Amino acid sequence: MTPTNATLWSLAAGILPVFAFLAALAILDTFKLVRPASLAAAVAFGGFAALACYQLSRFIDPNFPAYPSFGAPWPEEVLKSAWILYLIRTRRVAFMVDAAICGFAVGAGFALVENLTCLPQFLGSGLAVWILRGFGTAIMHGGTTAIVGIVAIAMRRFGPRRSLALGFLCAVAIHTAWDAALLPPLYASLVVVLGLPPMFVFIFVRSERSLHIWMGRKLDKDLELLQMLQTGTFLETPPGRYLQSLHTFPPAVLGDMVCMLQLSSEISATAKGNLIRRSAGLPAESDPELNRKLTELDYLGKSLGLAGRHALAPLLSLSSRDRWELLRLTGSTQV
Amino acid sequence: MNPGLTLKISEIEDLPVLTLLGRMDAANHDQFDTIADRLVAAGHLVVAVDLTDLTYISSAGTESLRRLTSSLRERGGSVCLCGVSGVVKTVLEITRVLPLFQLFDAPETAHAATRPTP
Asked: Which of A130, A210, A270, B74 is most deeply packed, by most CB within 10 A?
């Protein structure tokens, strides 16, 4: 084997496993929650994070010999988790599945650049080392960031900061255990390769089941509300009576509350219809009226004011999933 | 031209009928205002507004309807709302503007009811 060929094989062994795993995760995503552009952005961010960490380690390493094992996992996981934080703050992920895929993509990008920067260091080490780096280190990087996303979403009832911090600490613990070589590299790689896939399959199956249940329940609720509004019976129902009991609001605001319920239910039902279409392998149908509906939602939000929105909250619980629906739907028409 | 709302003007004898199709919201209610102002300026005292195919109306739209009825009432006229049902009826009810209008099933019944007796 010529040196050039050996380098290429080494690089392939170091990089391909993590990207194959990422592709498998994307395929397992039945609802196609993560678009290719989002994956590419996550991979690119991971690459930048790796470059930043490489520069930092070059600066610190000579003064702190234990840094690669016990210090490096902290800045590396901080930077990789920053992307998860961004996705959660901007409501771009709302389920464990999309958080896991995006997290893994960040880790894959990180591993790609890290392996490139390590190339001169490990060039003469032989293919076995690169296979270990590919199946072990690279997948560990993807797995730890995926865990940050999974824990942050699964534990969100404790608040975004706490849940993200918990995910981050889990990631640092795993990463430190890896870097400190608590297990011999071969065993550690086996643990990663044999442990991660079942964990992801379990999470995907569970998350998908919860998504189906949520979608069914919420869709039923939205359609029921729309039917009540369309048949003109809404004011005789408990939500209608509740609205009529809000005497402190001007009648025009009460009217806009009805409009807010109608628009939100319409958008939400369309979004869920699109998710169902995606899961059936059909393209999402764009709503030509969507942009004007979103503009009208802004108008209604201003008309209701803070007090009005609070008063409507029991009927219109805009959870992170619901906000995510709107964003997803907006994106699907803009692309 | 706003695709959310389509406005059609027709006449049953001398009764102008303004038919609204689609959604009347903050972005397009001024289309209605423009035509309503034109009808008032032309001296019509009674105007029929057909809402049978209107599927959405927010406070911006109800304000436009209220504005038209105020203009006509000042001149001793009125607005006949036709085909009010579903969510549009709910919104007009809860905003308490419904009593400001005469209600009819269709423009033809509005015409029959408002036609001056010979």
From this structure: A130
